């Protein structure tokens, strides 16, 4: 069965650079979530989209932005990267009101 | 205060025993609850979902929900070393945002 696809799997950036993470949800899933997970921490909700519109917003820094496109894929744009942004970034998708399934994650390292 | 609370553990059980993981939540209007298993460096994997009071069984896993007491639990019967992982409890709100607890690390010793 198709799963949530994230790219890239690994990304190394320098401080103050910009990064773009991509997420391709499971077909017919209309909700996409982004989570950030630091070392030894639980996943922290960043932002979600339903039918290409932002549906909820969590602890997402102003330096980050995200959108969902007409084909339902989503991109998380991160600017002015800081060392503290180093983390695993997970995307998950679900049908409305249904169970969420996670992608494999993107490991971002800021040096 | 986190909206979803879990004992961070580690919870250590011998192989073959029952592991009991607990989670409490503060939002009385929460409708859906999920248990995810996460191995180190991997993505969370959905194990169980539960939406109504009572028990829900799936193989060796049983989820229990008590909305009056605002807790949800996960029982793992016949625990195996491969069950050793962090178990994340999550609750879903009306906006479908998942809120996770801090996770409980389970160690099953052979």
In terms of topology, how is this protein built?
The complex is a heterodimer of chains A (111) and B (110).
Chain A: E1 5-7, E2 10-13, E3 19-24, E4 31-37, E5 44-50, E6 53-57, E7 64-68, E8 74-78, E9 87-94, E10 101-102, E11 106-110
Parallel strand pairs in A: 2-11
Antiparallel strand pairs in A: 1-3, 3-8, 4-5, 4-9, 5-6, 7-8, 9-10, 9-11
Chain B: E1 4-6, E2 11-14, E3 19-25, E4 32-38, E5 45-50, E6 54-58, E7 61-66, E8 71-76, E9 85-92, E10 98-100, E11 104-109
Q: Report how far apart the termini of chain A are.
A: 36 Å
Instruction: Round the Cα radius of gyration of chain B to an integer and report it.
Output: 13 Å
Gyration radius of chain A (Cα, Å) is: 13 Å
Low-confidence stretches of chain B: none
Q: DSSP helix count of chain B?
A: 0
Gap between N and C termini of chain B: 36 Å
Look at the helices and sheets of chain B and give the structural class.
mainly beta
The biggest beta sheet of chain B reads:
6 strands, mixed
Helical percentage of chain B: under 10%
Mean pLDDT across residues of chain B: 91
Figure out the total of helices of chain A: 0
Order of helices and strands of chain A: EEEEEEEEEEE
Largest interface: A-B, 25 and 21 residues
Give the structural class of chain A.
Answer: mainly beta
Helix % of chain A is under 10%
Biggest sheet overview of chain A: 7 strands, mixed
Task: Describe, in plain words, how this protein is organized in 3D.
The complex is a heterodimer of chains A (111) and B (110). Chain A is mainly beta and 111 residues long. Chain A has strands at residues 5-7, 10-13, 19-24, 31-37, 44-50, 53-57, 64-68, 74-78, 87-94, 101-102, 106-110. The radius of gyration of chain A is 13 Å and the shape is globular. In chain B, 34% of the residues are buried. Chain B contains no helices and eleven strands. In chain B, 0% of the residues lie in helices and 55% in strands. The radius of gyration of chain B is 13 Å and the shape is globular. Chain A binds chain B through residues 31, 33, 41-45, 48, 50, 55-56, 58, 88, 90, 92, 94, 96-97, 99-105, and chain B through 32, 34, 36, 41-46, 49, 88, 92, 95-103.
